[in-house]
Write a structure and sequence with these properties.
- The chain is built from one helix and six strands, in the order ββββββα.
- The protein is mainly β.
- A six-stranded antiparallel beta sheet has the order 1-2-6-5-4-3, with no helix packed on it.
- A hairpin with a 2-residue loop joins β4 and β5.
- The longest helix has 5 residues, at 80-84.
- It starts with 8 loop residues before the first strand and ends with a helix.
């Protein structure tokens, strides 16, 4: 495994406040979901009453408030046949 510099950080405080770095783009948002691109990976954050309080594209930092229920990174899956026939 190669040493890679960590470029993203996620901090969730009491499920009510979210701080994230490494955010390249906000792909979409509503009161129920945030869709982000973080270090080249798509991230979906769901919850209730979500509101972006700060976003700086130059530094890649994002702050949001609300009630957060799920954070899902959408990484590419290995095809089923490759998983079966290792």
């Amino acid at each position: 495994m190669q040493n890679q510099e960590l470029t993203d950080k996620l901090e969730l405080m009491g499920r009510r406040r979210l701080a994230m770095s490494g955010v390249e783009a906000v792909d979409g948002f509503s009161e129920q979901a945030l869709n982000l691109t973080v270090s080249g990976v798509k991230v979906r954050i769901t919850g209730e009453k979500i509101k972006i309080t700060a976003f700086n594209k130059a530094t890649g930092t994002l702050m949001a408030d609300g009630v957060f229920n799920e954070i899902r990174y959408n990484a590419k899956k290995t095809p089923l046949l490759k998983r079966i026939f290792k």
